[in-house]
Amino acid sequence: MTTRDIVFTAVGAITALSALLSVTTKHVVHAALWLLVSLGSLAGAYLVLGQELVGLVQLLVYVGAIVVLVLFALMLTRAPIGPHEQIDTPWWQRLAGALLGAATTVLLASLLLPFFSDASVDLDQRASATPQIAQAVFGTWVWPFELLSVLLLVALIGAFAVSRLVLGDGGRRPAAGTRPEPGAAGAAGAEGAEGHVSRPEPDGATAALPTAGAGERA
């Protein structure tokens, strides 16, 4: 086993472990950070295999753009980033997802491994395909790439617009899982209907008692 094999095995293990942690953690920001580690390690695997252009594209597109967009979406939507009982999945859904993921992995491995079992690549004497890839990207496929960049820009501007509409819609909104302040409901919720007074009972309930009228006070 050469040094390249050891480095590739270590980088692959880091990639697989961080990807597993990104889908099992209950904290959304932690999941985005573990995804960042996984994609960065995958770029390192490309560099070990001698594909510098693919590794740099991995860093620029996925690490530098996709993960940043995920973090911007979390900040703009003000979604709950920690564990929350209303959006938490039950144990049987997690078990079903794990079984489906394992079955998909076994199926892909059984289909793809026989095709590449006898393949061999000489990493020391490889032909560089960077000029051909650059010519294809900036020549044949330049307009689809530009349209995709415009689409991402429009999505980012739309997210900012939606966040401004939410912030300007009637003031602050209580966060998920929090109770409103006692004074927020107004005096009507504390006193009940007109002409009645709420009195707490020993068991915690409230009973409405009629108040004395003007004739009775006299």
Features:
two-stranded antiparallel ribbon; 218 residues; 8 helices; disordered C terminus; single chain; mainly alpha
Provide a compact summary of the structure.
The chain is mostly helical.
Assess the beta-strand content as a share of residues.
under 5%
Q: How much is the average pLDDT? A: 74
Helix count equals: 8
Distance between the terminal alpha carbons, to the nearest Å?
104 Å
Tell me what you see in this structure:
With 218 residues, the chain is mainly α. Helices cover 65% and strands 5% of the residues. It contains 8 helices and 2 strands. It has helices at residues 3-24, 28-48, 52-77, 91-116, 130-140, 142-167, 187-191, 214-217; strands at residues 196-200, 206-210. The chain has a two-stranded antiparallel sheet. α1 (3-24) packs antiparallel against α2 (28-48) and α2 (28-48) runs antiparallel to α3.
Topology at a glance:
Blueprint: H1 3-24, H2 28-48, H3 52-77, H4 91-116, H5 130-140, H6 142-167, H7 187-191, E1 196-200, E2 206-210, H8 214-217
Antiparallel strand pairs: 1-2
